[in-house]
Amino acid sequence: MTALVQAQGLARSFGGGWLHRPPVQALRGVDLTVARGEALGVVGESGSGKSTLGRLLLGLLPPSAGTVRFDGQDVGAASRAEWRRLRQRMQIVFQDPFGSLDPRRRVGPQILDGIAIHGLMPPAERGDRLAALLAQVGLDPAHAVRFPHEFSGGQRQRIGIARALATGPEFLVADEPVSALDVSIQAQVMALLADLRRQLGLALLFISHDLPVVRQLCDRVVVLYLGRVMEEGPAEAVFRAPAHPYTRALLSATPRLDPRRRLPRIPLPGEPPSPANPPSGCVFRTRCPQAAADCAAAVPALQPVGAAHRVACLRAAEAA
Amino acid sequence: MRRLWLPGGLVLLVVLVALAAPLLGLPDPIRQDVARRLAGPMPGSPLGRDEFGRDVLSRLVWGARASLTVAFASAAIACVVGTLLGLLGGWFRGLGEFFAVRSMDVLLCFPPVLLALLVVTLLGPGSGTLILVLAALYLPGFVRVTWAEVLSARSHDYVEAVRALGAPTHRILLRTVLPNIAGPVLVQLSLAVASAVVLESGLSFLGLGVVPPEPSWGLMIRGARGTMAQAPLLLLWPCLALSLTILAMNLLCDALRDAADPRTAPAAPPRWVDRLLPGLLPPPRADAVLSMQGLTIEIVTPRGTIRPVEDVSLSVRAGETLAVVGESGSGKSLTALAAMGLLPPAARPVAGAAWFQGRDLLRLEEAEHRRLRGSAIAMVFQDPMSSLNPVHRIGDQVAEAIRAHQPLSARAARARAVDLLRRTGIADPDRRARAFPHELSGGMRQRVMIAMAIANRPALLIADEPTTALDVTVQAQILDLLAGLQRETGMALVFITHNLGVVAEIADRVTVLYAGQVVEEGTVAEVFGAPLHPYTAALLAAVPEGDGMAAGIPGTVPPPQDLPPGCRFAPRCPHAAPACDAPQLLAERAGRAVRCTRADELALAA
Amino acid sequence: MIWAAQRLAVSLLLVWCVASIVFLAIHLVPGDPAELLLSSGGVAPDPAAVAELRERLGLDRPLLDQYVAFLAGLPRGDLGASLVDDYPVLDEILLRLPRTLELIGAGALLAVLIGIPAGTRAALHRGGAFDRFASALAALLLAVPVFVVGTLLVLVFAQMLRWMPAGGYVPLAQDPGRHLLLLSLPALAIGKGLVAVVFRMTRTAVLDMLARDHVRTARAKGLPPGRILRRHVVRNALTPVLTVLALQMGSLLGGTVLVEYVFNWPGLSTPLLRAVEARDYPMVVGIVLVISALFVLLNLVMDLIYALLDPRVRRA
Ligand SMILES: Nc1ncnc2c1ncn2[C@@H]1O[C@H](COP(=O)(O)OP(=O)(O)O)[C@@H](O)[C@H]1O
Ligand code: SF4
Ligand code: SF4
Ligand SMILES: [Mg+2]
């Protein structure tokens, strides 16, 4: 598989500056690739930098350091015209089904916004495209004239997906697209995303804090903690044999229906430290059950532990 | 919306009259006729003549014209310039923001009347000066409103979505941001017009506004003051015209503000319908701490009365954990609030009973209920941030819960509060007791809520989605804490959640709600192991677990104003049959309860 | 602490901005003040007189010199002297300002004593008879401009009923009873708007608070209603109410002009109006400056009180 999106040394901080408290370091030193047609899951607790990563990859937020290449092209260095062309090829779906649609406009024109902005199609043909898009996400084309508030959460999420698909993107960032939905609806939208990926060959960055959901949809996973990558690898391997103490704790804390699937709980003391003041060395060391003195010394590098499976932990080999 | 008509009509009338002043065939408002000085009503002058013998009615009408011209012109200028500055400042931030918004702070340092007087001193009185001054006065309001609205609009995903689509800035500002901030700007505009009318008349009254002999309401009052003793009516007319106009404008502003702000939607008026008589229901289960039977809740909404909870029964024993599961809108929280006696004003329990320690909670006097709340029955809510009072220290809030039910000194209660915080796993409780809620993390806040709830050793703890807002590792901590406390105290726990995994981990029994009704009830092992109701089965299949793709349930939960007549799950049920068109009853089946006629055949078929 | 110091610095900066704007406004607006001052009825003034006045005012010096001299005078309280009677501007202000503040204080007292309890009561019984009556009354009070109320009060109580004089002022030390009698009508006129605004804000804030989750928590704790009302509703509602009250009091600095005029109350407005009419620049500038500075100071104090009332503000 060829790399479609490639990030190198990506970092981003917020705030700080004149007379302020230290900046929030939302993301630090992240290297990552998304291959064409691949679904990469990003997991982590709130504030771990998942959304920031998504917006950086899309170029919606300039990085503090590092580069993002899309199909070989440096997104940060793109000219205005190039940037506009890139916008058609990469899109985003948001978490909040109520905040992601303009409450004052009918959904049809909103779905067609991308096509209108880029003048992709003669206006006469847009009606057909709209109907096709709505059908593709499982909605009645007659719904195009309604306003967002007339839809349920799951339906709005489908509309958001239709809007993102309108320009025919190759890369989609889905930022917690099912987290605000009820389980029965969540499964519907997951199935839709899986179908679309198959049909359209989309590359997907799927952001979620819900590990089982990621496992269902994604080929590969990246585990973030406090803005750093803790572990990455094939979804199957990471979930079956998590190598990082944090991943293990996260998996063991995930409630399970089936008692046989339940892992012995690895309790984590306390809560994640403030990203404005992260621990030195391994950022996880303040809560890590295996932490030792050397963990404070340097930031552990990602080391391979299996095929394409890498872990940033000094003690990854001893444990497991 | 109805509130808009009367004031709107009145304002429109004043505006129309002012516009039509030249067409009404009124006498010249400026021509003096000293012979008719202070004359009473007479033909051609229904309101009489003023101190210079000028026609009062004509001066009133032309005065409206002067006032409104100044008011509308100044408000319009302020609106256009201010909105533009606010838009640019809010969108581009940085230096532009600094100048657009901070310069307004300087303008705001001048009390309004003072600024007006200063400018009048410099430029001399007159309508032009007035318009300039008033526009400058209202400018900061528009800048600030627009700026704040743009900032909040910027953070909305739908603005981000348009940006992600590659829309150019001017398109985002004009097509997406501006329409969404139009409401507040319109409200600001109406406020500015109304207050400009007030200021204009005040300045004219001081002789610093409209220049005589031009008619103006303020000038008329100024003139009439001199002859107050002889002709008090002369004073009355302009006062009345001015006050009525401002009143109508203010009312219009209020109505517009309400229309633009969904938060202030009017609540349903209370109804004087009595509750049903108790006694028709089976007696409570002997060993249950809480036994709720046939609870039905009605809410009066503007679009009719709805029943978001109907015939809900549940019971929980000491030391037992009952999970109440259901998707959003299934009536979980209302059921819990009914037991606490904390239903919102528009909601009333209309049938059923909730037995607790020999008393029916649904029919308790408020004072009696209050003595139970926080002592024998306690509750923990979903959002620990908003559930704590931001202005009091958490130690005080816990101590307050203790003192509400125990005769302790403030000192002793504080010491107990610190103990409780320690018991709920808060490190360094002495120091943390003095913290304010915003200084704690989400998990910590939820621990405080739990400390408050167990302060008086409740027999029953109701936890309404206590971990939904928390991360999984913190959720695991809180679940462990609750389980530990329950082991120690033997309290009964009702745990409301939509997360079936959590149910499987902590609960003994489970009650499944769908669209306001109990559809299945039993031990967790039985219900999750072999669900009897098609909804329970579908819900379990929708949980992502393992490698296979979870299966969604087609369709959505019906809203309470639009429930199917028969089985409420029928439109989404794969097993629906003609028999399902009849209302379904909760039936006993092998020690479990299920609300489905076909449960037997389906179980057999399986 | 850093926060308070920062606020103080910003306030000083604002006062400096205000002073500079006032100075620039006077000197950059077309038309020579001296000429304007001496001209009457379109007759061109005597050039010699103009030149003499310009020299007296220092207008013949370079603008920057004048600006520096003006700023340098401020910390010493040197605001110049009236062009009309040569009386020091600061002395005039110090004599009259307390009387204006007394009016505002009396109005604010009324607002707190009537507005807050009435607003709370109206919110607790929303839609009830008291709420409807008080809300309508507040709307009416807000609609009638202050000089209309003042004029009507004079008409009714002084002209028709003859219960009290139409206006005037007697120092408190000289005759406390009469001082208060003369204070009552203007205080009522000033207070009517304040009471109405505070009433409405209290009602809204209390309604808002009643719907908050933390009030539900307080009820779930089984607290008695009185305590919930005091500690969890009114206490939290106080922040927006006091903010509005402060804003209103601020705009009354200078806004008392109308009332003082109607009731002949010898506050700051008398010299201000006289100065505006006579184009007595030093007087106008002095009064505007002092009042604006007071206004900034009031905002500063309010911010500090705000921080005391709401711990969330302190760290921001
Ligand atoms: N626009 C912003 N301004 C300031 N801080 C931000 C901003 N966006 C994100 N952050 C901070 O960066 C960190 C990572 O945030 P985010 O990427 O949203 O995490 P996640 O999506 O994993 O919850 C958090 O501490 C968050 O508060
Ligand atoms: S490096 Fe040390 S602290 Fe970090 S995860 Fe590994 S063992 Fe834990
Ligand atoms: S009653 Fe019929 S429709 Fe309802 S759940 Fe049972 S089988 Fe399905
Ligand atoms: Mg996020």
From TrEMBL, chain A:
Its main location: membrane. Residues 5-251 form the ABC transporter domain. Residues 266-278 have a biased composition (Pro residues). Keywords: ATP-binding, Nucleotide-binding, Transport. The keyword Nucleotide-binding applies. The keyword Glycoprotein does not apply. CDD domains: ABC_NikE_OppD_transporters. PROSITE patterns: ABC_TRANSPORTER_1, ABC_TRANSPORTER_2. Residues 260-280 are annotated as: Disordered. It is found in: Cell inner membrane. GO terms for molecular function: ATP binding. It is a peripheral membrane protein. Belongs to the ABC transporter superfamily. This is Peptide ABC transporter ATP-binding protein. It comes from Paracraurococcus ruber.
TrEMBL record, chain B:
The chain crosses the membrane at residues 68-92, 113-139, 232-252. InterPro entries: AAA+_ATPase, ABC_Ni/Peptide_Import, ABC_transporter-like_ATP-bd, ABC_transporter-like_CS, MetI-like, MetI-like_sf, Oligopep_ABC_C, P-loop_NTPase. It is a peripheral membrane protein; Multi-pass membrane protein. Keywords: ATP-binding, Cell membrane, Membrane, Nucleotide-binding, Transmembrane, Transmembrane helix, Transport. Residues 290-540 form the ABC transporter domain. It is found in: Cell inner membrane; Cell membrane. Belongs to the ABC transporter superfamily. Belongs to the binding-protein-dependent transport system permease family. The keyword Glycoprotein does not apply. Residues 64-253 form the ABC transmembrane type-1 domain. The keyword Nucleotide-binding applies. Gene3D superfamilies: MetI-like, P-loop containing nucleotide triphosphate hydrolases. Its main location: membrane. It holds the Pfam family BPD_transp_1. This is Peptide ABC transporter permease.
TrEMBL record, chain C:
SUPFAM superfamilies: MetI-like. It holds the Pfam family BPD_transp_1. It is found in: Cell membrane. Keywords: Cell membrane, Membrane, Transmembrane, Transmembrane helix, Transport. The keyword Transmembrane applies. The chain crosses the membrane at residues 103-124, 136-160, 180-199, 237-263, 283-309. Gene3D superfamilies: MetI-like. Residues 97-306 form the ABC transmembrane type-1 domain. InterPro entries: BPD_transp_1_N (IPR045621), MetI-like (IPR000515), MetI-like_sf (IPR035906). It is a multi-pass membrane protein. It comes from the Bacteria. Belongs to the binding-protein-dependent transport system permease family. This is Glutathione ABC transporter permease GsiC. It comes from Paracraurococcus ruber. The lineage of its organism: Bacteria, Pseudomonadati, Pseudomonadota, Alphaproteobacteria, Acetobacterales.
